[in-house]
Write a structure and sequence with these properties.
It is a single chain. The chain is α/β, with parallel strands linked by helices. Helices cover about 25% and strands about 30% of the residues. The chain has a single domain, classed as Metallo-beta-lactamase, Chain A, CATH 3.60.15.10. Helix 5 crosses helix 6. The protein is globular and about 55 Å long.
């Protein structure tokens, strides 16, 4: 299982920290988790053939996590030399279907016409995607925002999306080989809908994850030694991710 962070940042422009998107590759299957601005181009740079990319997971509907889905749909519709026929499946939070309907009203020329398209709205759920078991929980960032966990023979990977700390999140992340966690603000920052470094460290320690990679830092977090703040609680492997950070989860290699 290979996980590449295409976008490690927020909506705020910052060198090496683009809006949120993650490329998940497992066996012959590729998927994008979130689709922030610029994700389509970065996926192409990673070798992904967009016209055959068939699965997208959305954590929530904020623009820094979704806007390039519009570009993706337009690219599939307007390629003058190749028509998409590969079906497209989108997994998203409750409200994704209504949001998509409004997108089609705003951008009527990009709706799928040569391929099938489906949206599955989920809350707390467990299902099988390709050879992986996928599970989701609500994260508290919005009323419907999601975290995803992917588990297979090679190991397990969790992406929190935007989240707040909770007992459910502790359990959801337990013993993950790789946890990609948002860390919007430094320790002590008051936030009702995002994670701070002290809470990220507590999550990683309590859940006993093997490796934590941090994304989605706003400028106050980028301005401090966020690694040391997380390490005050967590003694495991820590990566402060940037665009292009890549991780391989392989049995026997952590």
């Amino acid at each position: 299982m290979k996980v590449t962070i295409l976008g490690a940042g927020t909506a705020i422009p910052s060198l090496d920290y683009s809006p949120a998107s993650i490329l998940l590759q497992s066996g012959t299957a590729d998927a994008l988790i979130d689709f922030g601005p610029g994700a389509l181009q970065k996926a192409a740079q990673a070798g992904i053939d967009y016209i055959n990319l068939d699965t997208v997971f959305l954590t929530h509907l904020h623009s820094d996590h979704t806007l390039d889905l519009i570009t993706f749909l337009q690219a599939n519709d307007s390629n003058p030399t190749e028509k998409r026929t590969t079906p497209l499946q989108v997994y998203g939070c409750v409200g994704t279907k209504a949001w998509y309907k409004k997108l089609m009203e705003a951008f009527p020329g990009i709706s799928p016409s040569t391929y099938s398209f489906a949206i599955a709205e989920i809350k707390q759920y467990v299902w099988t995607w390709r050879e992986l078991q996928v599970s989701s929980i609500l994260t508290g960032h919005t009323e419907t925002s999601l975290a995803y966990r992917f588990e297979g023979n090679e190991g397990s990977f969790v992406f929190t999306g935007d989240a707040v700390l909770s007992n459910d999140l502790f359990e959801f992340c337990a013993n993950a080989d790789l946890l990609i966690c948002e860390c919007s603000f430094p320790s002590g920052w008051v936030s009702q809908d995002h994670m701070t470094a002290d809470k990220v460290g507590l999550l990683a320690k309590t859940a006993a994850v093997k490796h934590i990679a941090v994304t989605h830092q706003y400028s106050p977090a980028l301005a401090v030694d966020i690694f040391s703040q997380i390490a005050e609680s967590y003694s495991g492997k820590i990566t402060i991710a940037k665009d292009g950070s890549s991780f391989t989860i392989q049995k026997g290699i952590k």
